[in-house]
Amino acid sequence: MTLPAPTVPPTPTHLNPAALAAAPPPSFSLCPPPALALPGRIPAAPFHPHLLLDLHCFPLGTAPHGSAIMSFQDRAQHQISQLDKELGKYEVLNNFERQTSVPKVYVVLGLAALYFFLIFFNIAGEFLVNTAGFVLPAYYSLEALFTSQKADDSQWLTYWVTYAFLTVFESAVNAVYWFPFYYTFKFVLVLWMALPQTAGAQIVFRSLLQPLFARFFNASSY
Known about the structure:
This protein has helices at 17-22, 64-87, 91-100, 104-120, 125-145, 151-173, 175-178, 182-194, 200-213.
């Protein structure tokens, strides 16, 4: 009696190497599936892409935040280049850069960071802030005195009047004892008032001092 040959069951597709090789690679998506409209069921609200960051739509390193970072880096590099160009007007800094091979812009930024660090932790904070409020404005004031223009004279006269009122006010109210990090605040305020790019002293004078004292002086003098 001859027995029939045993029947070998087919190899499942998920275990068949040939089938696995021929099958397309699986695809994964973080996007939510489209809403299904079932009979008797209200379709789901449409999906709005702005409510969910579609990560798989952006290759690695090209997500929207990457362009923002690059834009910030470009702006920072532009500001450093502009500062280096301004510092190039001073021969002392140019000679220092040639002798030490250290970019002058990095030296100035490092010293500025150290200066701010000392003020922030109130290490000789009063002296450093008063020095910052005097040296740079004094330089520009002397420069204005040796020119025939009157606009810069008015600008720096306004600064000195505003700075004097600030100094008297802080002494009268003893601000350093009840205002946390007062010298840090004053340092930023003084720079804002003194720098020609911001001219904050003009704003303080027109907003506060002029309304207080204008009635004591002839209006034609303004």
